[in-house]
Structures are given as C-alpha cells and as structure tokens.
Fold each of these.
Amino acid sequence: MKQDQTEDIQQMRKFPIVAVLLPGAFLAILNQTLLAPAIPVLMDELHITENTAQWVMTIFMLVNGIMIPITAFLIETFTTRRLFLFAMTVFAVGTVICAISPNFGLLMVGRIIQAAGAGIMMPLMMTVFLLIFPIEKRGTAMGTVGLVIGFAPAIGPTLSGWLLEQYSWRVLFYIVLPLVLIDIVIAYFVMKNVTMRTFPKVDVLSIILSTFGFGGLLYGFSSAGNYGWSSVAVISSILIGVISLTIFIRRQFTLKQPILEFRVFKNKTFRITTVIGMIAFLGLIAAETILPIYMQNMAGYTPLDTGLVLMPGALLMGLMSPINGRIFDRFGARWLVIIGLTLLTVTSFLYTQLTASTSLTYLAVVFAVRMLGVSMVMMPATTAGLNQLPNRLIPHGTAMNNTMRQVAASIGTGILVTVMTSAALATGTEATVGDEIHGVNVSFYVATFLSLAGLVLAFFIKGTTPAEERAAMVDDQ
C-alpha cells in the first residue's frame, strides 16, 4: 500500500467503522462462549458425553480457524463493506438454524455456518483497525478490541446461565439473532471500504488440505476420550491431519499467492508472539469449557452459578484491555506479557487443587486473576507481532495469527477435555465425584505446563515501544 493511500485511510472518519465492526465482533465472540454453561444441559437433554458435547464449542473455533486463511484471500478480493455484510448474513443464517435445531446434528450444522461468518469477522476487523490507526496508536485501538473480547465472555456465560434455568437452550440463539440483523442494517448505510483489492487467485487444493489437516487433528484428539487413544479412528484421523497439514504448509511456499503466508514467521518477534497468543487463548477457552462441566456435573452448582463465577474475570479482562493497550503504547509488550503469563501459570496451578467442596469464591477469584493475566497477554502480544510486519503483509499476519490462535484453542480444548475424561480414576456408574474431579485437576496440570512454556518464550520479546519501532522503520526506509 502506498504512503499517500495509507495516510488517506488513516484520516478517514473512524467512528462509524469502529461502531459497526465492534458489535459484529462482539456477537461473534459472544457465540463462542455462550454455550459454555449449556454443555452439561446438552449432555442431559441430547444424551451425549462430555467429549461429544464440547464439540459445540470446539467446532465453532475450528471452522473459525479454517475460514481465517481464506479470509486473507477474501479481504484482497472483495470490498470491506461487501465482505462485512456477507459475513454477518452468513452468521445470521447459522444462528437461525441453531435456534430451530431439533437435534445435535442440526445444531452442529448451524454452529458450522455461524462460525464460517464469524471466522471472517475477526481478521477483517483487526486488518481494518491496523490500517486506519497509525502504529503509535495501535495499542489503544487493539485494547478496544480486547475490551470486546473481554466483555463478550463476561456477558455470554452469565446470560446463558440465567436463561438456562428458565428457558430452553434454543432461546440463547433467539436473543442473538435480532442484534445481528440490526448490525447488518446499520452497516449497510455506514460501512466504508478500507482494504485494498489485489484480486489474488484462490488455491482450492490448499483449502481442502487445510480443512482435512486441522479437522483431522481436532477430530482425532477430541474423540480419544470416547474411543481410546489406540482406536483406529483416532489414530487414522490424527495421521490424516498431520499428513494433510504437512503437504499444505509445503505447498504454501511454492505458490505465488499462498492462502496462508508462512513467510511472516521469518520475523522472530511475530513467531514468538503468535505462539504466546495461542497459549493464552487456549488458557481462556479451555477454562471456560472445563469449569462448567466440573461445576455442574461434579460439584453440584447451577448454570447460573457457573455464569456468575465466570463473569467477574471476563469483566476484569474487558476493563483492563484498553488500559493495557495504553501501557503497551508507552512501554511496549515485553513486561505486560511476562506478568500476564505468570498470572496465567499460577492460576492454572491453583485449579489443579479442586475438590467437590471448592467454594464459589475460590473459583471466581482465581478465574478473575486468570483473566487479568490473559488481558495482559492477548492483544499486547498480537499487536507487538503485527507491528513488525509491513502494511502489505498485515492481512496475512492477522490471518495467520487468528488461525493459529483458533486452531490452538479448538485442538487444545479437545485434548484437555480428553485428558480430563481419560485421567478420571474411574468412569461409568461406579465412578465417584472424586474420581471425575481427579481428571479435571490433571487437565489443569497440562494447562500449567503450557502456560509456563509461554512464560519462558515471553523473555525473548523485544523491549521496544511502538514509537521506537516506527522510528526504526523510517530509518530503514
């Protein structure tokens, strides 16, 4: 993108664009966590296991991850306005299907369609924000994105928990639908075109390979809890995933216009911050999936109790995200990320000590500190990595970052739920609550180890501020 075009974009009126993109992203993220307290309800009503029920969460994230690479192509092919309206319309169609679904199969179809629209939303919003804001203000702008990412999980589980005690789980989707339609109508009138269209060619084989790759890994790891690690279906699914992903990655380096630009990983800071973002997002989603199962199926709490436990942490994450954005603009990402991952590691360990009588206060306080840590990691790490890329690579950087984060959360959550069910001391009718809780504690031991690995990586992030990075870019030019 030329310098004068960049300046023109940064000078356009930002408020209408932000006012449309943020609610769209809010609704997309809301639907990612809205069903967390409903997992035990779905298990009971639809007669399915934990490993099957968690698919309503993980399939949403997986399809997000599959769609995000395609979004880099879509952003460079269609106008910003048209792509946003298309994404929100697809999301609305999926929401309708979920609302009227009479069984688990149709619910999954609706979730897949919802996720296809949501998968376009997040990278589109991040790309637009990074283009309309100059580098020295990106931390504050991305902090606003963090505000949305924080408040959506805050409202989602709490609203869901309250509604589930009074109505069917289908009402969750009927509430979201009118909000989606209102955003579509407003966007039709106020959304502006920001991104540049270069009309790249789409490689169908790459899309097929990425779908089989990510899908194979998720299905294999998620199904191990139901069928066992030695099952032919599990082993073959994981092998198909590994082989497909290997071919997919090798193919991207041979294409003139790759679906995912893996060359962005040549930048060390981007590489490190992407891995850290994957670990942080996994820590966020895994806790919001496992805790409701533990609280409602093992500790005897209600869906509303679950929502109330998750709410303070998610609110704290939302409130702190803009503040962390300003701190990032002034001091950079390094120490924010180090402190955040320390909190994430400590709280993961504290969740390895759960019992049948663990209090709501303990669960809520630990979760709140955990979300404070996540808020210090997610957007600062992401923005620090993307700031290292030239404008022409930002759509590819955001696509890669979001893809890796969603895939890590979906596959990682599948693995942790499988660890939870596999590590239970006993299963079936003879299993005690203590046997099942042992599995929950073991899954959080795994989460503790992952957070600790991220903390070690954080020390390799540069200690520069965005202003210093911009000055360095000018000197290089």
Amino acid sequence: MKRFIPICALTVTMALPASAEEEGNKSLMEQGAELFFEGLRQEMEPALDELLGLAEQFGPAMQSFIAEMGPALAELADEIEDWSAYETPEILPNGDIIIRKKPPQDPEIQPEIPEAPPEGETEI
C-alpha cells in the first residue's frame, strides 16, 4: 500500500504535461489513470459502505462507553506513571482481571547461577 500512493501520484503527474500538449484532448495516460481510479473506486465502494455501516452501528455505543468510562480511565491514567512497568492484563476464568507489575529490572543485580554439584555425585 505504501508503494501504491507514489505510483498513483506519478501516474497523475505524468498525465498532466501530456494533456497540456494536446490542448483539451485527453492523453492515453490521463484516460488510463481515470479508468484506473474509477475501477479502484468501484472496487472499494462495498468495503467503504460496510465500514460506514459499522461506524453507524457502533458509534452510539462507543460514545456511551466513553461518556461513562472516560472519567474513570482519566483517573487511572493519572495514577499510573509508567505503563511499561506492568504486564499485559490477564483474565481469570471467574472474570477477574489481573494486571501484575513487572519485576524490577536492576542492572546491578546479577541473576544467581546455581552451583554445580560436586564431582562424583549425580543429582536426580
């Protein structure tokens, strides 16, 4: 998709000088670009209509959710200074949601390496 937009822009800019030379008549490049964009519009129209329908369906529910939960979420955001200090939320089977704090990452503390068992003994 990132390459699509520059290609379209290049097509349109290439068609503009050609149409100026023909004084009113459309060049093949300009006609091709128009046909391409018309076909693209026709192909995208059902998806855009469906997206508009979803927005109309969920819009009122989202506005209600934001109106009710907005102040509570703002208070929570004020209390939490660093979101990266917490694990991702976990939903328990009973419906409770747990958000655990990550263990501190202190670079001076080295993890303990267990000692090797003395030679001749095998730990089972």
Amino acid sequence: MTNQFKDGFLWGGATAANQFEGGLNEGGKGLNLADVLPGGKERLKLLASPGFDFEIDQAKYHYPNHEGIDFYHRYKEDIALFAEMGFKVFRLSIAWSRIFPNGDETEANEAGLAFYDRIFDELAKYNIEPLVTIAHYETPLHLIKEYGGWKNRKLVEFFDRYVEAIFTRYQDKVKYWLTFNEINGATHLPLLGLGFSPESEATRLQESFQGLHHQFVASARAVKKGHEIIPESQIGCMLLYAPVYAFDANPENVMYVRREADLFNFFCGDVQVRGEYPYFAKRYFEENNIKLKIEAGDLEEIKQGTVDFISFSYYMSRTDKKHKTAEEMGQGNLIGGVKNPFLSASDWGWEIDPIGLRIALNELYARYQKPLMIVENGLGAYDQIEADGSIQDDYRIDYLREHIKQMGEAVQDGVDLIGYTPWGCIDLVSASTGEYSKRYGFIYVDKHDDGSGTMERMRKKSFYWYKQVIESNGNEL
C-alpha cells in the first residue's frame, strides 16, 4: 500500500537543548535542572526518589549534559547534515536559562537570544522549519532552589516573561511552537517536568497536580500571547502517549486500564485541547485527597488558550492488570505495567509495538479532531563501528520502517497527521540514564560514557535510508 502522506508533510528530527547543546557556562547561560543530573544508571533512581538536593558533586558523579555533543559550537555542521537528509522541520528546545539565567530577571540575556538567532538563521538557509519546545526539562536552577519549582505560582509570571521575550524576538523566524514537553509525565517524574523533588511519596500527587495546574495556566497564556505576537503561529501541546492494554478480558482489568489510560493519556490533553478539566478529574481528586488552589480567572484563561495542534512522543505501549506481582512487572518500561508476551523489547527493556502507534493516532484523533504530529519516536540501541568505518544499524531502520508503515495506516484511517520528527536524530545524552551509549541518531557522534571521544560526526546506514524516506514522502521504506 502506498502511504498517503500529504504534500508538505513535515519530515525531520527532534532534540532538546539540555541533551545536546553543551556550552554550559558560555553566553551568560545560567544553570538549569539538567545541569545537576548525573550520568549513569543512578540517574533514574535519583529522579524517582524524594529529596534530591540539586547540587553538583563532581567528586561523586559525572555530568554528560554539561558537554552534550557540543551543538553550541558545531551547529552549522549538524544543520548541514540535517539538510543533507532533506529535513523539512527540526525540533529543538530553547534553554530557558540561556534567555533568563536565573529565571526571575526582568531583562533577557542578549547573548542567549543571539545564539538562537544564529540557529534559526542557519536553518532558514536550508528551508528547514524550526519546531521549538519552550520548556523541555530545563527549569532554571534558581527557580527550583529559591521558589520550589512549579509548585510555586510565581513561575507562571516568570514563564510569561520568558515566552514574551522569545515570541517577540523570533516572531519572523519561528512559526511552530510547543509549550511543555511531555507535560503528562509530571506526575510520574515531577523532578523533570515540574522542577521539584516531592517532599514525600504521600504528598507527590498533591504537589504534582498543583504544579500541573500552574503549567496549564502558563501554557494557555503562552498560546494567547503567541497568537497575538505571531498571528500565523501554530502552537501545540506535547504529550507522552502510550496506549494501555488490558492483560486479559477480565472486566475488572479492562475497567482498571480504562481509568489508567484516561488519567495518563487524556487528563492533560483534555485541559490543553478542550480547555477544561476532564469529567473524571473530580472523582480522582476526591479519592486521592487532592485539593487544587485555583485562582479567579484561571479556568477562563485555560478555556481561552487551547492549542492549535497536538504533538506527542511514542516509544511503547503499556499492558496492565489491577492486581500484579513484582515478578509480572515489565522490566524497563518507564510507565509501568506488566510484560506483554506478544512484544519484543529494546536493549533497555522498552517494549516495541509499531501497531500501538496506529492505535495512539486513532485514539487521539477520535477524541480531539485536531492535527497531530509525532515529535518523538525511535530506538535507543548500542551502535558499533565496523572495520570499514560504517555503522550498519539495520535494527533502527527496521524499527522506524514498521512505525512509519503504521503512520500510513492511520492516515488511511482518516487521521490528520502533519509531521514526524524521530527522537535524537543525532546521537545525544539520554534523558533517563544520562548515557551516550543509548544511541538514537541517524548521525553517530564519537562520544562515550567514560567521557572519551573526538565528537566526530559519522553518517549511519539509517542516515541514507531516512533521506530516501523523506525524498519519497514516505512511499519508499
């Protein structure tokens, strides 16, 4: 079957400033959350447990995000490689602490603004559309230590100032914007999305949903402000999406996963797309003793600031049941659940489910009837350089090919899909483990977990394959 991707479909790739930029202390940049997250397997443990201290301890840990892959200095080379693949769009984030080093200043940092001017100008040279994430796990450290992160209402005001500065500066250079990266992941790992470590497990939900409410208000205000300053702008939300399957046909398990799916996949989407809290929120809040402080005008602002399109990440589905043992738990799946006997998994234990992407696209489109964009999808794997210097990553090609096929099926189903930006189109630092060895890219970067490497860029086999996919608008896979 020929995949019926529309003319002008936005093929590209995705990154985040904190995972690939580097330039830690350059251009007046302040420290942000990612700068205090150590590399290695201990990162996930620190992310998930209360009481993180937000200090850099060079004697105990290493911090790969400080260097990333040095896009800060090598952006021309990297953007030229993206252009060679034929990118129509490039997803990147702005590091908030480059624009406002502490986050609470009244004046933006000119050197930070000028850096992104150079990036956008370079992209324009090749007719690559920037897709900019405004907040991607990069809360300025000062806002975390001084104010307690997004639990504090004052961050709405600071975010207002930040978005006004970047919308005003880049109004002629950036059309596509996303407000908060994977906003619905905040209740699982509030440290990443909300910039605070819960006081305790008992208070996690109360703190997280209050922080989310502040982000909903901030996002709605950003959408309104963006439309005022850049009338032709398209501003989207960004969800972490995973279809949830019942382990079996037991109605108790079916009802359980229905509620889990509603809460994880649709709670934030309903607020940002429909402009109101979902029908099931009241009962959930009551049963979990969550009492939101909602100020006068908040709900009206949320209603008025709904997004133009929906973007999401898709890496895996989730299979679950109401009562499960530790032995049944899926190993590696970040979002919990039990092992699905019908699926294989990546080197990091993430279950691989291409059909789940078609299911996700249909579920989202059926609920919201808004254009969709897949802004993260990909396979983290160990890559090996062969004796002839090539990198034969057929496993990555196979993974992406099967997912793109299912995108084509969803388009045939009637879904309005407007773009696809696979994650880590160039190798970068993993968000979950702080590793270089968990590689996603079409471009290999010679940098390793022990800190060694030349930073040399090399095209993988998948580089040439993806070039062909883009040239053929998804018809040659």
Amino acid sequence: MKKPPNVKPFASEDRRLLQYAKNLLANPGLVAQLTNVLGTPIEVAIKRLPKGACKRVNDTLESALLKCVRIAAKTMGDSTDERSWNKTHLGAVVVTGATAGLLGPWTMLLEIPVTTTIIFRSIADIARSEGEVIKTGEGLQECLKVFALGGTSKNDDATESGYFAVRSALAAQIKKGADFVAKEASKEGTPAVVALIKKVVEILGMQYSEKLAAQLLPIVGAVGGASINAIFMGHFQSMARGHFIVRRLERIYGEAVIKEAYDLLPEYEDIVPPLARYQ
C-alpha cells in the first residue's frame, strides 16, 4: 500500500510520544478513581442526593464554563509555554476542596465556578504548551472537549475506541447543535461553543454530581474534599496532556495517520516519558 503524499515518516520518538499519550488517555474514569479512594460505590451515594440537585449542578456548570471561555479568550496569550503549572493548579483546587469540606458539602455549588475555572486554566496551559492556539474558537473548543474524556459512562476507561468515539460524537454534536442554539448564543461564545458546552455539561454534570454525592458521605470532610478535588484535577490534566499530544502529532502527520498508529499501539506500555517536561 502506497504511503499518502506529503506524509512524513513516523519517527520512533513520536511513536513513544503517542504511546505516552495513549497511556494517559487509558487512565480509569473518574467514577472508578473515586470509588477506589472512598471504598464506597458512588452509585449508592448518588441515590442520596435531593431531587433537583443534579439540575442545579448542571446549571452552575454551564454558567461557569461560559465564563471560563470568555475569560480565556480575553486574557490568555498564544505563546507556547512549556513550564509546568500542574502542581500550582493542583494545589489551588485542593485548597478549594478542603474549604468546601470544612464548610459543608452544599458549599460545593459555590465552589464549582472556582474549581472549574482553575481546571479549565490548567487544561488551556497544557494545550498551549503543546502548540495549541488558545484564543481561536477551535482551540477553546478543544479545551472544552477534555472535560468529556474518560467519563462518558460508568464503565468508560477512555481506551482508544472510547477516546476517538468521544471526539467524533462531540464534533457531530457541535455541527448539529450550532444552528439550534444560534438564536440563544450570547456574547460569551459562538453558537458552536455554546452547543459544545451544553453537550459537555451532560457528561461533566454527572461527574460533578458524583463529586457532590461523594462529599455527602459521612467519612468525607476537609481531607476528603481536598482528595476528591485532587482526583478531579489529576484526571483532567492527564486527559488534557494525552489529548493535546495527539493533536500536536496530528498537525505533523495528519489525523488519519495518527489514528491508525494509535489503534495499532498496545493499550498500555511501560515507557519512560519521551521528554523531560513530561516527567
């Protein structure tokens, strides 16, 4: 089979980088991580949530994400920044989680905008370090997509089929929903961005509801709230790094080449991160 024209040979170093991305994207979903830490099935805690709690979480999230996009579009530069802010962002959400744990789980509705903004900023920083142009509509949409990775179902573990399936589903949703929300679009975002946020909130809202349910458990206090927020931040940082590594390689080799190479890689391979900044 002839190689497509203008496609560069796939370098062995880039193969390692793609494997590293796949390792990150194969991390267990948030439900599995929360269950492992708490030792209690989240499904049990979800049933204890008052009626209407999930809708309040979703409404709060949608508003928070719209503001995140608006702020990022106005304040973030496009220069590639390879410094790692992961620990700084992690520390910030740990503090907000601990505070919510001390004041009571229902303060989470006030915590959501703060935590979500910090997580979004961390995702955007990772995207920028991988060469993504943040201020464009496409760049902002790719940051939003990260919130939908590794959490589409209770059993989702973001394997290769899940990763590309989520990307494909979100792309279709944007195209389908953009015209529908055009009349409702506000200055915070284009119709496509608003459509994507609505779709992402369907997935992310369930994850935040699981977070709220976990914080309602008697065993969870300030330490538990901090730990739960740390899990959230760590998860989305891993999803962002994996996603934007794939995106960077796609810009070099083309989407079809990277998709084929990704599918041929093992689900997980114990390798040393290919660059020092990933360690």
